[in-house]
Design goal:
The structure holds 2 protein chains of 2 kinds. Chain A contains 8 helices and 12 strands. Chain A has helices at about 50-60, 85-90, 105-120, 130-140, 160-175, 190-200, 240-250, 250-260, and strands at about 10-20, 25-35, 40-45, 65-75, 75, 90-95, 100-105, 150-155, 175-180, 210-215, 225-230, 235-240. Chain A has a 6-stranded mixed beta sheet, sandwiched between helices. Chain A has a 4-stranded antiparallel beta sheet with strand order 2-1-4-5, with helices on one face. Chain A has a two-stranded antiparallel sheet with strand order 7-8. Mean pLDDT of chain A is about 90; it is low at about 1-10. The chains are: A alpha/beta, B alpha/beta.
Amino acid sequence: MTIKQFQTKNTMLKITNLHASIEGKEILKGINLEIKAGEVHAIMGPNGSGKSTLASVIAGREYANITEGKIQYIGKDLLDMLPEERAREGIFLGFQYPIEIPGVSMVNFMKSAINEKRKHNGQEPIKAAAFLKMMREKKAFVELDSQLANRSVNEGFSGGEKKRNEIFQMAMLEPKLSILDETDSGLDIDALRIVANGVNKLKSPENATVVITHYQRLLDYIVPDVVHVLYDGKIVKTSGKELALELEEKGYDWIKNHIN
Amino acid sequence: MKSEQDIILGEVTNSDYKYGFVSEIEADEIPKGLNEEVVRLISSKKNEPDWLLEYRLKAFRYWKTLEFPKWANLNIPDIDYQDIIYYSAPKQKPKLDSLDEVDPELLNTFEKLGIPLNEQKLLSGVAVDAVMDSVSVKTTFKKNLAELGIIFCSFSEAVQDHPDLIKKYLGSVVPYKDNFFAALNTAVFSDGSFCYIPKGVKCPMELSTYFRINAANTGQFERTLIVADDDSYVSYLEGCTAPQRDENQLHAAIVEIIAMKNAEVKYSTVQNWYPGNKEGIGGIYNFVTKRGICQGDNSKISWTQVETGSAITWKYPGCILKGDNSIGEFYSVAVTNNFQQADTGSKMIHLGKNSKSTIISKGISAGKSQNSYRGLVRIAKKAINSRNFSQCDSLLLGDKCGAHTFPYLDIDNQSSIVEHEATTSKIGEDQIFYCNQRGIDTETAIGLIVNGYAKEILNKLPMEFAVEAQKLLQISLEGSVG
């Protein structure tokens, strides 16, 4: 692992010995993870390994019960914060299955989201003209058709449109830490390229991205600095981007045999 | 584990009623109780002609033979009709030509309700008839409207000044034998609004009636009568509020609309009677009969209602589509929270050829409330090639409330088409979390989702009122979700 280049940077997220269970069943069994500004991490792992649960716990979804461990985010105790506070502090979750909200237009939804964040930062609500300009720019980013603004949140969107809409929202909200949960699932190669381009363009030394994926495919487009393999609720292997390729080639059985 | 949804629901459904204040106004009241003497007394206070008194008495005698209707999906406590004051009027000078003569406390009351009666301060483009308890206290812009031949005044004035019109149309759409509350209203109604739009006139402003119950132990029984002559157009609004009291108060109104050839009437209601407290104590019993007749060919009547108040709501605004090619519409959002109960919907009676009707009903239930849609679509044998489309959606917030749908269809010919769609959904934990994750707190998220759900209906309201209604929806559901 090319640790040297990260050492000088600030730690954004630090997860220590995190245990979480759902309905009494332990899903996360002692996760340790540190993410610094400017980094892209990939978390890979077979189905049921706990990838999505980890993403949910960071975002603050309450169905998982945290039994042990802690999460530090920009120096704060993340587990003490409500989901909306985490979002306003710059955590963004790209949903694996984006939710439809009938009757609520994207414009209205985004405006509410941005203004909540601005209020949190002690800023005035965004001016209509500035907001519309921002919408236009960011839509172009993910090649989203301009009718989107008038449509209800995710309602009647195709699978690819929903995922692009997630990246669009990420672009609008300018998060510090983005977690993309299986953003590649169900995408054809063109959509995959658009989504990945969007993520790459948003990359900066001040923010960090966690890409959660089952397949190596997405990592051809979004090149991670670090790859983690999550298996049975633990991170069993951490290495550079070459790990993804090795995993793709040898399959998850290789990891299984590796640890057993 | 208590689900997030339950917690949310617990929180969002706890808000205070904004219009619960009482005004200190000296009132001219008659004693509690209901008998022929009371009916005569009301009639004489109004200086009514004999025919109207006779009509009231007939209705009263008929009412005495009736049993309280039990068919609604409502749990209605026994109402003691002898324990109600049937007439209560704020004391003031008999004739009001200018605002200076109106009791300042009355003006204050309406100002506080957001309905300034001073014409300079009024929303431009809205004329108001303000009704407090049993009487109309002020009608604005009367003179401007009169220049176009439009009559807009209190019902009592109309009885004095336009007796022919009243005699011709009163009870022509809702006869007193229609139902229990129609009979009761006809016997004891005390005021209301009257509106006549002459041939070919498009009314340039929104007309509205604002109903306020102030006095305690009083029932409000008002009538609204709207006549739109050939080729005319009017948009009419109705708003209502009442003080916060621990006892229940009765409101039983009648609205009748007559649309002649090519005429169009839009009637919008924002109903915000006091709904009772979180434990279900107090609140208005709202039993209303609203019906319009599309008398002439190509006429159109549309009802839009946003119902958020009242402990019990019982109303079915409907249309009799008598003219060929006539159109009836009903758009409704009914919100029930805490212990509120609503049984509401529409009746569309197709008699004319090619008549069309649309019913869109959106129910939102929260707390421990019960919300029912009840609708009747009847297509008579001669109403060939008629169409109806009905859509009834229910949105549940939490798992302690109920939503029910009772559609009745009665089709007597082969050429007509009737469609009925119904959906029931819950505000999902997923939707709320999705909003949370974008920085939107739960209460705001529910407001967004509910307004999104009701948007189709809110868009039908005149603009100034759509914004108000939107806020009202949010307030009504505050504390209903967590």
